């Protein structure tokens, strides 16, 4: 008999969810982690970045005290204490990931870095364990492209940037994806001079261009320099400064700063696992899985960032929820359904998104409808001195939502109404007919969907007809 029913490799969000779920279903489970339980999200991703972003937002609000009718005031802080606060938050959130908690559930937690010997055997530190089934959830890490000179300078990624206990005076960030933008605004709000270099012609190239451009303007107003036309040629150290030699639309450009950070995407953590011995195929993006999260080896599943699909904590958790029954319960086959996958970029304003962008929808559908609302017209946003952003809904001509994009204060919370609507096949009409509380930020959802009715009622034949009715009978 095999030592375990299920062995999970990697103790981040994906792996921990699988291990606890499987143990609670009665399986004999081993969990192999090479570092600490908790993964990227807890130590070098979501939790520390959102903590720093929150502190930076408080700094920014204090700096703007006059805008709230308060006396102008200076804000004082020691960046070391800010970082210590971030570490305290990690410890608090990480209590749930205490190995003892998993041992108490019956999971055998093993701290080791091992490799497959065959599809049923895993070796670490001279030991071998056998398992009927495996789940790989080893996550991802920052990828570095071969830029000339990179090997000669000390550069930052999300990992060591979160280890800094001093605030860089100036920093160049390569890549205007979510990592680049979230770090950029956070550092800038604390007082660093920030330069963002992006190659794709817009920040957040995967997002709706109109909202991404609006966010770019907002970040520029905060003093961040952004160039979206950049081809980096090389980097070098000159004295205390890092120098980036690049070109922008054929023009040579040079940038310099104290620090250089790379945020240009992720690579799956596959090194050393000896996947071939287990018959697992992988591409550059990650391990190949089918819609049931099964790898090319029939007793091995994968979930989370290592699959290279949607690199988000909530997706890793969703995939873990598929893997548990698919791997353990005979005859159960739960398919991954990615029709409604939301995410949020935690800049201020936040950019919440679900479904198709306007461009994506135009490519897929003959006719679409787009409704927009400017946050500057929303009472609650004006009250809070945060009236910046746009909301955009992309829908079919019959009002079924294809995509929703919320660049607004708390856009990450607001977008959830659209997520539920899309998941439940509710249309703009259902939202518009729902009473929303005044004055909330959530009213922006109703205001945008109301435009669907406004278009139908206040234009075309309806007003002409009602005008006559009012004249005759009014
Ligand atoms: C800066 C940053 C900010 C982010 N912010 C957000 C956010 O706000 N919201 C969001 O949804 N997502 C966010 N993400 C993405 C999120 O962190 C990941 O999608 C999530 O952590 C993926 O979970 P996972 O379980 O697949 O991998 P991980 O959480 O990375 O866990 C993988 C685990 O496997 C271990 N491991 C690796 N190799 C081996 C091996 N060979 N043997 C044993 N163990 C191994 C690692 O040590 C790690 O503990 C952010 C990411 C970054 C980098
Ligand atoms: N709020 C969140 O949920 C959140 C936050 C951070 C990260 N994440 C996850 O982590 C993933 C990785 O984030 P990321 O920002 O590193 O990657 P990304 O792939 O999302 O963005 C990388 C950016 O770098 C640019 N780029 C690539 N090569 C470049 C080059 N040579 N020069 C200039 N620009 C270049 C790309 O065009 C892109 O805009 C995200 O896609 C997301 O899934 C999520």
From TrEMBL:
This protein's record includes keyword Lipid biosynthesis: no
Keyword list, A-Z: Disulfide bond, FAD, Flavoprotein, NAD, NADP, Nucleotide-binding, Oxidoreductase, Redox-active center
Domain Pyridine nucleotide-disulphide oxidoreductase dimerisation: 341-446
Record domain FAD/NAD(P)-binding: where: 4-320
Cofactor note text: Binds 1 FAD per subunit.
A molecular function (GO) term: oxidoreductase activity, acting on a sulfur group of donors, NAD(P) as acceptor
Cofactor list: FAD
Keyword check for Zinc: no
Source organism superkingdom: Bacteria
Residues annotated as binding NAD(+): 175-182, 198, 265, 305
UniProt similarity note: Belongs to the class-I pyridine nucleotide-disulfide oxidoreductase family.
Name the UniProt record assigns to this protein: Pyridine nucleotide-disulphide oxidoreductase
Naturally occurring in which organism (per UniProt): Candidatus Jettenia caeni
């Amino acid at each position: 008999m095999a030592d375990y029913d299920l062995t999970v490799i990697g103790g981040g969000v994906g792996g921990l969810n699988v291990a606890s779920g499987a143990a609670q279903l009665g399986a004999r489970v081993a969990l192999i982690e090479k570092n600490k339980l908790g993964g990227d999200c807890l130590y070098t991703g979501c939790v520390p970045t959102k903590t720093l972003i929150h502190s930076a937002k408080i700094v920014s609000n204090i700096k703007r005290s006059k805008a709230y009718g308060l006396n102008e005031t200076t804000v004082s802080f020691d960046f070391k204490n800010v970082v210590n606060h971030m570490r305290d938050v990690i410890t608090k959130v990480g209590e749930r990931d205490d190995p003892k908690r998993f041992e108490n559930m019956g999971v055998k937690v093993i701290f080791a870095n091992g490799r497959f010997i065959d599809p049923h055997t895993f070796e670490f530190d001279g030991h071998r364990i056998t398992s009927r089934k495996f789940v790989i959830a080893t996550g991802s890490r920052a990828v570095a492209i071969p830029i000339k000179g990179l090997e000669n300078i000390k550069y930052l990624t999300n990992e060591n940037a979160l280890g800094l206990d001093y605030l860089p005076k100036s920093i160049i960030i390569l890549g205007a994806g979510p990592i680049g933008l979230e770090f950029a605004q956070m550092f800038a709000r604390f007082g660093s001079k920030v330069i963002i270099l992006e190659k794709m012609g817009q920040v957040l190239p995967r997002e709706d261009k109109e909202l991404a451009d609006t966010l770019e303007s907002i970040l520029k107003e905060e003093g961040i320099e952004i160039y979206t036309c950049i081809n980096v040629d090389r980097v070098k150290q000159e004295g205390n400064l890092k120098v980036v030699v690049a070109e922008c639309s054929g023009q040579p450009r040079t940038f310099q700063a104290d620090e250089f950070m790379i945020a240009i995407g992720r690579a799956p953590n596959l090194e050393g696992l000896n996947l071939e011995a287990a018959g697992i195929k992988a591409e550059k993006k990650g391990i190949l899985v089918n819609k049931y999260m099964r790898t090319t080896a029939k007793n091995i599943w994968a979930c989370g960032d290592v699959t290279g699909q949607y690199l988000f904590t909530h997706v890793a958790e969703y995939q873990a929820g598929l893997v548990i029954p698919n791997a353990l319960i005979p005859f159960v086959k739960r398919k991954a359904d990615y029709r409604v996958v939301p995410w949020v970029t935690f800049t201020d304003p936040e950019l919440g998104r679900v479904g198709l962008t306007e461009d994506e929808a135009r490519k897929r559908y003959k006719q679409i409808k787009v409704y927009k609302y400017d946050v500057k017209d929303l009472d609650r946003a004006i009250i809070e001195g945060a009236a910046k952003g746009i909301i955009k809904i992309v829908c079919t001509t019959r009002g079924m939502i294809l995509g929703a994009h919320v660049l607004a204060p708390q856009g990450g919370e607001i977008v959830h109404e659209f997520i539920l609507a899309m998941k439940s096949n509710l249309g703009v009409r259902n939202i518009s007919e729902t009473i929303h509380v005044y004055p909330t930020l959530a009213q922006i959802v109703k205001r945008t969907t109301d435009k669907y009715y406004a278009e139908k009622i206040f234009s075309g034949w309806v007003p002409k007809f009602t005008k006559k009715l009012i004249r005759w009978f009014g």
